[in-house]
Amino acid sequence: MGLLDDKIAIVTDASSGLGRAIAVGFAAEGAEVVLADVRREPVEGGAPTVELIRGAGRQACFEETDVAQWAAVDRLVSGVVAKFGRLDVMVNNAAIFTSTSLVDTTEEQWRRVMSVNLDGVFFGCKRAVQQMLLQEPRAEARGRIINLSSQHGMVASPGDPAYAVSKAAVAHLTRQIAVDYGKDQIVCNAVAPGKILTGRGGVAIDPDALAYSRARTPWPRLGEPRDVAAAATFLASDMATYMTGINLMVDGGWMAG
């Protein structure tokens, strides 16, 4: 028996990084996973996530989706419900960043980050809640929403204010939904990763930044996608029913110091 047997889950930005790990983890625990992304191929290389899951004998399908567009998110959820009859878990994971300071961030960059990181989460939450309100509860919950925030939604993200502000907003949106829809038995939580090595290049693996992250993290290693996937799997399971509105840190103790 898996933790997520018979659950229908959507994971956005599921082709790469954290979304890829979450989708694989959900499938391993018995969920039917719908992978939503603007691209099928993983940024870090390797087989597409859907092939990885099917190769392990589990069920998954891919839907090309731009979460910054309401029509695309609406179509995604409607298609899942038409195929499976319900939506048990919605994971809003898609996010981008600029790595630019306040004065160097253009209006276009700011709006693009907010359209994906915040509007995309808003659209995913709204459409999921619309569907979950129509469903009968299973193990007390009509459905579960998991949003990916960040430790940089609680402390500043040096040199990237757009990303930090968007993630702070995601954490608050999570609390708002938990309060407003708790009476309807809809669970909404966030996962706040610390420094996670996802296989992406660029500023993510800058030697000075990695050295700082290692010095700042009490745990004797930096995070891996599987760490975030484990937290998301727990929050998606029936074990987490009485937990709602939390921003669960997966940071190796960074924020405790």
Model description:
- With 257 residues, the protein is of the alpha/beta class.
- It has one domain (8-256): NAD(P)-binding Rossmann-like Domain (Rossmann fold, 3-Layer(aba) Sandwich).
- It has helices at residues 17-28, 49-55, 70-84, 107-132, 161-181, 207-216, 225-236, and strands at residues 8-12, 32-37, 60-64, 89-92, 143-148, 186-193, 247-250.
- A seven-stranded parallel β-sheet has the order 3-2-1-4-5-6-7, with helices on both faces.
- Helix 5 (161-181) links the parallel strand 5 and strand 6 (186-193).
- The mean pLDDT is 95.
Produce the secondary structure layout:
Blueprint: E1 8-12, H1 17-28, E2 32-37, H2 49-55, E3 60-64, H3 70-84, E4 89-92, H4 107-132, E5 143-148, H5 161-181, E6 186-193, H6 207-216, H7 225-236, E7 247-250
Parallel strand pairs: 1-2, 1-4, 2-3, 4-5, 5-6, 6-7
Helix pairs in contact: 1-7, 3-4, 4-5
Cross-sheet strand order for the largest sheet: 3-2-1-4-5-6-7
Biggest sheet layout: 7 strands, parallel
How many whole angstroms does the radius of gyration measure?
17 Å
Please, how many helices? Answer: 7
